[in-house]
Amino acid sequence: MKRLTYKDFSEIRNDQTRLIDVREADEYRAVHVKGAELWPLSRIQEGALPEEDERETFVICRSGARSAVAASIFERMGWRECTNIEGGTLAAQEMGADHVE
User: Fold this and answer.
1) If I label 24, which of 40, 61, 65, 76 is the partner at 20 to 30 A Cα–Cα?
2) Domain span including residue 85
3) What is the number of other CB atoms lying within 10 angstroms of the CB of residue 72?
4) Residue 75 lies inside a defined structural domain of this protein
């Protein structure tokens, strides 16, 4: 699993990147990175996985711990390499309102 800071992710993000937020729904509703799709880690651990597509996958949570677990699960299930966003949504919030909703 690769690791990347949120700042570095924000600089390379484009139409070919996919951002999966693995926090719970209430956390996601409170604040999330623009364009992130919600797949709670609790569901992933139960075996519910999003369908993999051709985009490069990045995984985010609040600070980087849960997203590391989820990225490892994705890779064990045969996904191409996933990248964990270190600093998570907290780092996105620090970068300002342009990054979160």
Assistant:
1) 76
2) 2-95
3) 14
4) yes
How many domains does the chain fold into?
Answer: 1
Tell me whether residue 100 is in a domain: no
CB-CB contact of 2 with 42 (8 Å): no
Tell me, yes or no, whether 25 lies in a domain.
Answer: yes
User: Which CATH number goes with the domain that contains 83?
Assistant: 3.40.250.10
Closest CA relative to residue 59, chosen from 19, 6, 86: 19
| Calpha distance 46→100 (Å, rounded) | 28
Tokens of 64: 């980087």
pTM for this one? 0.96
CA distances from 72 to 14, 83, 97, 101 (A): 23, 9, 30, 27
